[in-house]
Structures are given as C-alpha cells and as structure tokens.
Amino acid sequence: MLLEAQPDIAIAGEASDGREVVQRARELQPDVVLMDLTMPGPQSGEVIRQTLRACPKTRVLILTMHDDAAYLASAMAAGAAGYVVKKVADSELLLAIRAVHAGRTFVDLTQTLSPPHAPPGSSRAQQPKELSRRERDVLRLLAQGHSNQQIADQIRVSVKTVETYRTRLREKLGLKERAELYRFAVESGILDPDR
C-alpha cells in the first residue's frame, strides 16, 4: 500500500520465494528488486547474484529484520545496492528505494549497530578523516563488496597496491574482518556519496 501510493513508484510484480524472485526479475526486468533475506528457496546471496546476472541493470535492495553487520556484509558482497531493516520508518524505506534506483548505495543500520571494538592496545582511528582519500576509496569499495581485482580496476592501480591499502586500513582501524570494515564505513559515513 505504501509503494502503490507513490506517484513515482510502480510495482512490477511480486515473488514468494528465492527462485521466483529470479524468474520474475528475468521476465519483468525491474529497476529495483526489494527483497527479504529469509525467504524459502536458495540462499539469499545466491538469489541476489542470480538476479543480477539475469538483470544487469536491476538494483537489489534488501529489506530485512536482520540488523547484524554480518548479514549486511554478506548481502553487499553478493551485490546488493542497499540494506534496510524492517523497523525503519516508511519515509526511510522510500528514501532507500529512490537512492538505490538513482545508482547510490543505501544502508540504514546506524541505529542498531554498536560501534566496533578495537583490540586492546590498538590505535584504531576514531574518525574517517584520519584516512587518506585513497584509503577511504578502497574502504568504500570493500564495504560495497568489491574484490581486490575490481577495486584495482576501478581506481586504476595494481592488485598488490590494493592489498597494501587493505593492510593499512586494518592497521589504522584495528579491524580485521570485512564485516568490521563495513560497519566502520557505515558508521563513519564513508558510504554516503554526499560526504
């Protein structure tokens, strides 16, 4: 009902499980697929990947009850362009759909994620301004789920240079896992294209 009331949004179709998501997306070629992570059928990451293979111009937005950074990182690594939890306000969901449709990344977990904890004695940077511009670029692309090779291609450096940037990020931030890097990117605003 919320989506049908919007003059700039049209519902192209619906699906009840992961297989049907891919099939309907292939048939309808929607601009945006709004998808839950916990549907019957194949694992959600595989559904996202298959949908994007079948519809390269489609953007996937996850709407889920899972407010855990690991779910978020997994969905983004599979190719999702956005991730919002179901308890967000209606206006936030509409904002997410429009942002993803416009080609931006949209994540709303900031009210549910606790700050990552640095290991004792680490010198994790507290503000993203302590990162160089190139380190911020690499962090943003990592958080969006890109591989080292994809990042190297986008910023026009070697894979070895990307690995060096990743090492620097881990040392500066005191974060080892991709999910922790993602959480930092979300909380620091690095994924926000306007910042």
Provide a descriptive summary of the structure in words:
This protein has 195 residues and is α/β, with parallel strands linked by helices. It folds into 2 domains: 91 residues, 3-Layer(aba) Sandwich (Rossmann fold), CATH 3.40.50; 61 residues, Arc Repressor Mutant, subunit A, CATH 1.10.10.10. The protein contains 8 helices and 4 strands, in the order αβαβαβαβαααα. Helix 1 runs parallel beside helix 2 and helix 3 packs across helix 8. The longest helix is centred in the last third of the chain and has 15 residues. About 10% of the residues have low confidence.
Range of helix content: 40-55%
Mean pLDDT: 81
CA radius of gyration is: 17 Å
Per DSSP, the total helix count is: 8
Q: How do the strands of the widest beta sheet line up side by side?
A: 1-2-3-4
End-to-end separation: 33 Å
**Main pleated sheet:** 4 strands, parallel
Q: From the structure provided, what is the oligomeric state, counting identical versus distinct chains?
A: single chain
CATH architecture level-2 label of the largest domain? 3-Layer(aba) Sandwich
Low-confidence stretches: 110-129
Task: Write down the domain tally.
Answer: 2
Into which percentage range does the β-strand content fall? 5-15%
Write the H/E string, N to C.
HEHEHEHEHHHH
What is the name of the CATH superfamily of the largest domain?
Response regulator
Here the CATH topology of the largest domain equals Rossmann fold
